[in-house]
Q: What sequence folds into this?
């Protein structure tokens, strides 16, 4: 009886833990393998513990070149697509113009199109236009599919924003620019940041479209793909684990900041006699 | 922003706003004297918010002018106007703490040292020590006071308040009404207070403008409007009225003769809005008294006979419905002062009133706004 009650109270918790385990298992494996010294190039077993991979992540020179290239492409594609996408989201939410409805639909096209189709059609386009394949064609392709995601993310944030806040700012002597700078931008910023992070991870991760338009340029996903034929160097796991760690750190820092701000605010309230700002 | 000479009345001249074919504000003209507490009273959707938005510059009028003193501010951008607004939904900035919300207007005008002023303003609205909280961490009443402080700190020439107490519960609302009046008296700024609550308008304002369908129906001191309404709409929007369908039949000395359902009445000429033609004879329910026979009616009072059909006891008073011989229902409030015994439904009574408390309104047959009420005085509507 007691046991059944105990189970009834906790089974949801148990399911949640199982799902969490399912989601994190691959990451745990990657993290574990980053400390592995494989006995042979084609071995996927954990043979011997080592810190060498972390001490010399660039022992395989091509790999680090590919990582740096992917980062460069990712950063450029992120900046360009975030700026373009944000402007477009503002246009779509704030300004009525002919064809706005059609535009709202078209935005989803790059998301809905299979990557293979988009990769090949871009290739055909570049070839027809006589543009040599390489770094910049990859950037153009990445900007193209990232923009859609940025527009959708920023648009959602912007549509949820109360226009009266901007009116209140203007009523309180803020010019158009000050209103944008002090009210609109800070309120939409979380959406823009989320969109930028999404764009970067989409770009860094992309293989199919990149593969069609890369020419001789090698990005990190392409390097891993190529290396898989000959045996993946364990440093790939170092890069994977590091990326995951950085992402985790960002999420942790932002939630910590939010919690600290809340606690500080409540602490002041607990002692209403204390006036002024520290 | 800058304090100017006292002749800084707010004037609206033929102000009109159309949304497509719909006219939200229709040729509105009024003057709000500087330093006064002005209430704009009207039902939801009658154009109150639109009027305020045009004064604040958030909406461009289709026609007409907004003037401050002699200055035409119709075309001025909102941030150039010495006018601040307390919004219907408060519109506090969620990403800024209370201190920064209140300091916002000062900072935009380039004032660096804002701490003291903000503290003083928070003290005025009794929110000392709340500066570091975010708006979401305050109750509705506290948010309302932040919105007020955020506007007042700028010492605008005119403060616009758009149903600022609408979201508060009754007790807090009464408390804030007193607070707002105190603050207005203290700072001496012109308040234009929008509300759909007639009691709120009457208790707070020096001047009340009753608005209906984008127009001002009547403007004046609360007692003035209540005692001598100009239209049937006002007579029923501000409190309630018994309105008898009548015909005015010309003057007789200082009185205007009135015939209603075959009975002759009279109204002092000073309380008649017309002398001849279709009319409505009005008496407020608290000024309609019930007697148990014609011989008990005081000298000089006018009367109609009827039967009590309903008596509702509401504590301070009892509200009676009396059906007249021709089928109209009159409402009468009797104070429960312990003098008269309560009347049971079915009792035959004589309803009487002092003609100096009656009023005579024009009855425009084509006037849609009053047509629905013609010949059928309000039935038991509670104040
Ligand atoms: N931007 C707008 N577009 C179209 N109609 C509007 C707009 N703003 C207000 N209205 C209409 O104008 C009328 C008056 O609105 P409002 O001034 O908000 O009324 P109130 O504040 O008195 O309740 C309403 O019928 C409303 O539907
Ligand atoms: Mg309104």
A:
């Amino acid at each position: 009886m007691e046991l059944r009650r105990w189970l009834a109270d906790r089974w949801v918790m148990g399911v949640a833990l199982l799902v969490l385990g399912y989601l994190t298992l691959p990451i745990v494996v990657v993290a574990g393998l980053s400390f592995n010294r494989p006995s042979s190039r084609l071995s996927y077993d954990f043979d011997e513990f080592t810190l060498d991979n972390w001490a010399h992540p660039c022992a395989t020179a091509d790999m680090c070149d590919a990582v740096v290239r992917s980062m460069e492409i990712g950063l450029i594609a992120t900046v360009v697509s975030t700026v373009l996408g944000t402007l477009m989201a503002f246009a779509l939410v704030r300004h009525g113009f002919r064809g706005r409805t059609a535009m709202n639909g078209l935005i989803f096209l790059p998301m809905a199109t299979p990557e293979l189709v988009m990769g090949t059609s871009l290739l055909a386009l570049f070839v027809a236009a006589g543009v040599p394949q390489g770094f910049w064609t990859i950037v153009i392709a990445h900007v193209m599919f990232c923009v859609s995601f940025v527009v959708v993310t920023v648009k959602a944030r912007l549509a949820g924003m109360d226009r009266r806040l901007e009116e209140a700012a203007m009523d309180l002597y803020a010019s158009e620019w000050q209103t944008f700078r002090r009210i609109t931008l800070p309120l939409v910023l979380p959406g823009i940041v989320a969109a930028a992070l999404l764009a970067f991870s989409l770009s860094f991760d992309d293989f199919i479209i990149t593969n069609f338009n890369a020419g001789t340029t090698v990005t990190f996903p392409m390097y891993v793909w190529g290396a898989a034929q000959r045996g993946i160097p364990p440093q790939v796991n170092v890069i994977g684990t590091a990326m995951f760690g950085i992402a985790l750190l960002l999420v942790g820092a932002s939630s910590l900041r939010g919690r600290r701000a809340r606690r500080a605010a409540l602490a002041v309230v607990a002692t209403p006699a204390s006036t002024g700002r520290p | 922003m800058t304090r100017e000479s006292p002749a800084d009345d707010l004037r609206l001249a033929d102000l009109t706003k159309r949304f497509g074919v719909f006219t939200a504000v229709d040729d509105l003209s009024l003057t709000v004297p500087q330093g006064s507490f002005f209430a704009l009273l009207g039902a939801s959707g009658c154009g109150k918010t639109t009027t305020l938005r045009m004064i604040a510059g958030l909406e461009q009028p289709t026609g007409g002018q907004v003037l401050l003193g002699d200055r035409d501010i119709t075309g001025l951008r909102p941030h150039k106007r010495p006018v601040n607004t307390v919004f219907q939904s408060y519109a506090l900035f969620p990403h800024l703490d209370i201190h920064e919300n209140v300091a916002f207007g000062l900072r935009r005008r380039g004032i660096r040292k804002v701490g003291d002023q903000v503290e003083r303003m928070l003290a005025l609205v009794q929110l000392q020590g709340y500066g570091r909280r975010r708006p979401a961490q305050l109750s509705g009443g506290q948010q309302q006071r932040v919105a007020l402080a955020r506007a007042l700190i700028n010492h605008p020439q005119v403060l616009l308040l758009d149903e600022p107490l609408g979201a508060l519960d009754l007790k807090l609302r009464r408390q804030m009404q007193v607070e707002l009046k105190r603050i207005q008296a203290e700072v001496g700024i012109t308040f234009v207070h929008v509300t759909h609550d007639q009691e709120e308008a009457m208790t707070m304002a020096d001047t009340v403008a009753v608005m209906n369908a984008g127009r001002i129906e009547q403007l004046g001191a609360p007692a003035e409007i209540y005692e001598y309404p100009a239209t049937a709409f006002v007579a029923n929007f501000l409190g309630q009225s018994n309105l008898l369908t009548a015909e005015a039949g010309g003057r007789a000395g200082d009185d205007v003769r009135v015939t209603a359902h075959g009975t002759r009445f009279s109204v002092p000429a000073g309380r008649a809005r017309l002398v001849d033609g279709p009319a409505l004879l009005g008496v407020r329910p608290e000024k309609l008294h019930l007697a148990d026979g014609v011989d008990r009616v005081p000298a000089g009072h006018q009367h109609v006979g009827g039967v009590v059909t309903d008596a509702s006891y509401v504590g301070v008073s009892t509200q009676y419905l009396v059906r007249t011989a021709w089928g109209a229902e009159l409402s009468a409030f009797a104070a429960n002062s312990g003098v008269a015994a309560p009347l049971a439904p079915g009792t035959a009574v004589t309803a009487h009133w002092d003609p100096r408390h009656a009023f005579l309104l024009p009855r425009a047959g084509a006037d849609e706004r009053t047509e629905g009420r013609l010949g059928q005085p309000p039935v038991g509507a509670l104040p």
Q: What stands out?
A: Chain A is about 75% helix and 0% strand. Chain A touches chain B through 29 residues (CB under 8 Å). The domain at 62-232 of chain A is CATH 1.10.3720.10 (MetI-like fold). Chain A has a mean pLDDT of 86.
